[in-house]
Here is the input.
Amino acid sequence: MKLLVTGRDGQVAQALLAQASDDLQVVAIGRPVLDLTDRASIERVIAAERPDIVVNAAAYTAVDKAESEEETAFAVNAEGAGNVAAAAAAAGLPIIHISTDYVFPGDKASPYVETDPTGPQGAYGRSKLAGEAAVAAANPCHVILRTAWVYSAYGNNFLKTMLRVAETRDTLRVVADQHGTPTYAPDIAEGIVAVARRLASDGNTPVGVFHMVSSGETTWAGFAEEIFRQSKALGGVHAAVEPIGTEDYPTPACRPANSRLDTARFTSVFGTRLPEWESGVAQCLKALGQTD
Here is the structure.
């Protein structure tokens, strides 16, 4: 099986590249060769690579910056996603598209299921929700995977920020009233591969939207505490965590108070579930060079 992944330097794309094996070829291509805003470039790459499945992992992810660059966010996350889905459909290929918890308003008291009403609070969420609609409209064989709080040893993310800041501070103030599930990018990649294998082997695989995050839940402060607990046990940097409220850490974009996603449909259809989120922290610290 061969996967063509849009984007090259993102966390999920890098994690997918690491999934390559004797029976799985992964090709990740980004700009300028593959430009989401240029459908012709996508079609050329698909024709040249001849993949079995296209994975759209490329996205505009600067959540706060999107508030002042909404047009750019929509060009990539909405129109771009639609271009990828349409190019895949023209080649007779399924598409797996990565989306986000930010499509929800965050005011539900329990984890969100796929059929819950959406209501993004910011430009980034609006652009991703529009992308979901564009993908579904352009390609009937689509699997849209909503995930959340992505981190890894690659790029910029919360875990790496915490470790970096702890090098110079003894105490960090971290938001404690936003709830969700930290999800390790390599675990996301394994989930994507499971979906891809099912799509490649079963023409009757259900399509649509699925929630795919790690098992369990916490807050940003709880995430930070676990990072430092594990890092300290390995002899790495650590700091005390001072829980604060969202109002004490204002940002240009509103973050959902509840980012918890119910993954029962994903597990039922694809027969797998992502590991507990704490295990992802351990794996990430190991990937960053921390060992017993």
The mean pLDDT is 96. The first helix runs from residue 11 to 17. The two ends are 37 Å apart (CA to CA).
